[in-house]
Amino acid sequence: MPKRLIIVILVLLPLLQIQAQKEPLRLGVVGLTHGHVGWILNRESSDDINMVGIVETNNELALRLAKQHGFSMEIVYGTLEEMIRATKPHAVAAFGNIKDHLTVVETCAPKGIHVMVEKPMAVNWEHAQKMGRLANEYGIHLLTNYETSWYPTNEKAYQLLKEGKVGALRKVIVRDGHKGPKKIGVSPEFLEWLTDPELNGGGALMDFGCYGGNLMTWLQQGERPLSVTAVTQQLQPENNPKVDDDATIILTYKNAMAILEPSWNWPIGRKDMEVYGETGVIYADNRNRLRLRISEGYDGFSEEVFNLEERTAPYHDPFALFAAVIRGEITLGPYDPYSLENNLITMEILDAALRSAETNSTIILRD
Questions:
Q1: What is the maximum span of the chain, computed from C-alpha positions, in angstroms?
Q2: Sequence-ordered strand ranges (E) for 200-277
Q3: CA 160 to chain centre
Q4: What is the pLDDT of residues 98-156, one digit of tens each?
Q5: Is the pTM of this model over 0.85?
Q6: What does the alpha-carbon distance between residue 302 and residue 307 come to, in Å, rounded to a whole number?
Q7: Whole-angstrom Cα distance, residue 143 to residue 159?
Q8: 148-310+332-364 has which fold?
Q9: What is the pLDDT of residues 195-251, one digit of tens each?
Q10: Looking at the domain 3-145, which fold is it?
Q11: Cα(335)–Cα(331) distance, integer angstroms
Q12: For burial by CB atoms within 10 Å, which of 100, 170, 180, 282 has the most?
């Protein structure tokens, strides 16, 4: 090969690789029944992701959403296998019931197709372990999408804690939820499986308890709790006849405790966290407002209030982050909220919480 040609190839190859990296990620959407599917269907046009196919067996639902969001019914398929053959996606995002997450991973992992599921990771601990083994065996990224993962306030709370601003961690209280699925008017297709213990794994405990377990595992950098104690109630039997709609979960650690309060009975929707250290407390009041209080004397304190801007790309959008991880532009820490390692522990916590509530006992987690 002529020397000049070799030089040209060496110059062009990196440019071609950069161009390939910038090609839109071919994303398939599996299911349309999850209320969060609007995140992708409403997403503004961008050159990072191209939605190439949708899997949905409910044709009436697909037609309704196609009219609402402007996608073509030509990209809607009846099965995941059919969609994969026709569109050859690099990745899929699951927006069906939680039980189907395992089937999605079982189908996609052997084909090298990356997967992002909505929280919680799985319908139960057994499914989560199978999903984790498949992801590791076939080397795919398996992420779990939480709205709270990249809240500016949660990220700031994590940074302040690691910087020692409030001293050693002692207690975390996480409260998540709303009035209840029926009361807030979720779609009939969403309500049908969200209140089905087989398809969702439980009620409010699973739906919102996962947020607290996920955040605590992140703050503790993968430390598993020593014990899990949970109490559930059904305060709206007329709306949630098959599942719990209110729960309190207590997690004990070697040097700290967490209290998780997932509920479908909050009068006002909320996703907030309190982080207590030895010398102060961090209040992540909502997505953008955080307060840092430092102890002064018995009950006095100084307070600093942060009104935080949204995080920069790709942390501003779950799909942008998914694409960045797949391209190798972002490497998640081993216990970051989206990570497989974190969500396996989160599912272990939820499984123990369900068993605790069912047996009226504290569940001891062993190595």
A1: 81
A2: 227-233, 246-252, 257-263, 270-277
A3: 22
A4: 999 999 999 999 999 999 999 999 999 999 999 999 999 999 999 999 999 989 999 99
A5: yes
A6: 17
A7: 22
A8: Dihydrodipicolinate Reductase; domain 2 (3.30.360)
A9: 999 999 999 999 999 999 999 999 999 999 999 999 999 999 999 999 999 999 999
A10: Rossmann fold (3.40.50)
A11: 11
A12: 282
